[in-house]
Amino acid sequence: MTNLALIEELKTLVDAGKVLTDADSLDAYGKDWTKHFAPAPLAIVFPKSPEQVQAIVRWANQHKVALVPSGGRTGLSAGAVAANGEVVVSFDNMNQILAFNEMDRTVVCQPGVATQQLQEFAQDKGLYYPVDFASAGSSQIGGNIGTNAGGIKVIRYGMTRNWVAGMKVVTGKGDVLELNKDLIKNATGYDLRQLFIGAEGTLGFVVEATMRLDRAPKNLTALVLGAPDFDSIMPVLHAFQNSLDLTAFEFFSDKALAKVLARGDVPAPFETDCPFYALIEFEAVNDEVAEQALNTFEHCVEQGWVLDGVMSQSEQQLENLWKLREYISETIAHWTPYKNDISVTVGQVPAFLRDIDEIVAKNYPDFEVVWFGHIGDGNLHLNILKPDNLSKDEFFAQCATVNQWVFETVQQYNGSISAEHGVGMTKRDYLHYSRSAEEVAYMQAIKAVFDPNGIMNPGKIFPV
Description:
This protein is α+β, with helices and mostly antiparallel strands. Helices cover 34% and strands 20% of the residues.
């Protein structure tokens, strides 16, 4: 069957006007935030129901057409890129909150519900959805589940998988499964729900998800502290964890801060220039907690771990302090950064960062390097900025040559080559640094069960 005939048949499975093939749509929906691969999808389809998704998957199996899921397209691993004539299945039209259970504090969402949409819904109910990151306004719940999204609150609340009570999926075979049925306790064999979390759409598509909510935090307060060196950051973390229940502990370098301040959107936290900064958030539920935070800050200053700092006194100041961290990715996007999203156990972070920094300094002496990350959970973001005199392809090629040494170091520390961005296409050739050959073989065998024809997001996680 010709491509034109395939597209005409696809149109019969969804509502009128819900299959797009114009060049602008193919470009927009065929890519995510990565810039490594040129989008080249066959078509974009917009289902509005689980039944339509099931029909699309069965059609794809019949004609051996590959499918790529598309949410907010904010991914950073090319997990939602369609570069080889696939049909992109966009969940933009499946964006409704379907039900709320006040007793269980759960919300049934379609996969196209934006993260911020769920956060605001929870807030309206006096509750809280804690998975949060800079792209919350455009990222979608289905994509968050597909990558097991983390973000800035993991130290307190964990990853997306901690908040998925149940889900309805369409497998790669076209079957509909209801997984876990929203139960807290369910000891009836394999928890297939967990297989789909982090699977990047390679096993099937999430068409409904029941998300748990939490109580709303009280009087969130942040400190931004400047440290004389990175080795001082970890004692600061230890000191604050021993005295407070933290909701976040982030770090960023002076180069990251300089890029944000240069835009002029937010003021500097204080006058002292420091090589590294920590952002600490906690609930100041009473004056005693706030006093304890100040005492811990003073202790860190006395120990020489902190040079200067500031604590938010209002919601506006809290928001401005968070902008120093959350605006980094958006700000450095101008330089087409080469990103590595790596993690080790928290206690190994200082030695690990020194080893990686040495590799980077040796091999990228002329490149600007920006560090930031979720230091409280061992997740570091290494960003290498593209010089103006290099093309994108030349720059990425130079960066890729050093990946071997970076990932060999990750392997030595028993770390992960992708802490929260997923594997996609950008990290698939490096999977063996974090997973043994036996593990990869079992993962591929699982995929073959759910997707025997290999139509579900092929080329992601594993090479085709």
